[in-house]
Amino acid sequence: MGWQCTGLRWPDVQGPPVLGWRRGGDVRVSALGYGAEFGFRAEGERGCIGARGNVCPVRAVVSGRSTGARCPECARLDRAHSVAADTIADDPRTYRVYLAWFGPGMVKVGITAEQREAARLREQGAVVFSWLGRGPLMACRRTEELLRSALGVPDRIPYARKRAVRGALPGAAERRAEVAELYGRAVALEGAGWPRSLERLPFGAVDHAGVFGLDGAVEVARAVTELVAGGVVAGRLVAAGPDLHLATPTDGVVVLDTRLMTGWELVAADPRAGVGVPVVDLGGGGVQDGLF
Fold first, then answer.
1. Which of 70, 173, 227, 258 has its CB surrounded by the most CB atoms within 10 Å?
2. Which residues contact 177 (CB under 8 A, 6 or more apart)?
């Protein structure tokens, strides 16, 4: 049995991203470095990654195009214990409400457990964020709903929209200003339904552009649509979060949604091998359904 990829993680505020791996009961991580050559080949079949840290009991095979990498039963179990699904009302932990910026006009509100600090923001690919408040889970939930109903702030932004703007972001001042403007509108609601048990936190913009390797423009040519058995993805890592941006020898910069890697057994491949899996041409050239 090989090492099954469990996805991209951001364990440290300024540290590099890491890929998680599992083989039976053993787990490990491998750090990724910008500018480094990177290559892997998918082997065998893509397996369900299980739920809540548990292995899938039936070792189900899942689709290569799925971003969840879970069989229906494990997906149901994982969702049943998800804060995002609003299925847990009595969680005693302290939570935080945040405002996250992903691109011009794309600011959302969300919540995360305080003990996770900003890991959730990095996993989502938030380029800039600020905390808004902290308190019990349900107070944070009510604040999230207040911003949605009173200000029209979404709690989700489609992944494709995030990806479309990441190659050419505006400057740091403009990014910060959009979050600051929403923060001001949000705190103005303190007398109009703001939960009493939510402690407002001061504005403080945290910019992840450097952490993600997005300080400069990154012109992206193609995006991987799925991994396949025997398929290779290789190149020089130029940016991440949550995609990997790989500069390839012949295909320009190719982006790989790291959620497509989960569940596969991945082995090292020649970093000069390029891309040998189905991709979509982001320049409008259509989908390459075969292998390069």
1. 227
2. none
Report the pLDDT averaged over residues 110-126.
Answer: 91
Report in angstroms the alpha-carbon separations of 52 from 31, 40, 77, 80, 82.
23, 27, 8, 10, 9
Residue positions counted in the chain: 292
Contact in structure between 3 and 266 (CB atoms under 8 Å): yes
CA–CA gap between residue 5 and residue 117 (Å, rounded): 24
The DSSP output letter for 166 is T
Contact present, 267 and 44 (Cβ < 8 Å):
no
CA distance 168 to 164: 9
Rounded CA-CA distance 7/158 in Å is 19
Show the DSSP H helices in the chain as ranges: 72-80, 119-124, 137-151, 159-165, 172-187, 209-212
pTM of the model: 0.87
- The predicted pLDDT at position 251 comes to 85
**Which of 257, 280, 247 has the alpha carbon at shortest distance from 38?**
247
Above 90 in pLDDT, residue 192? no
Pairing of strands 220-224, 26-31: unpaired
Which has more pLDDT, 171 or 218? Answer: 171
* Element housing 252 (H / E): strand 252-257
Asked whether 232 and 276 are in contact (CB, 8 A), the reply is yes
Gap between the Cα atoms of 203 and 209, Å rounded = 19
Report the relative pairing of strands 94-103 and 128-136 from DSSP bridges: antiparallel
3-class SS string, 40-92: EEEECCCECCCECCECCCCCCECCCCCCCCCCHHHHHHHHHCCCCCCCCCCCC
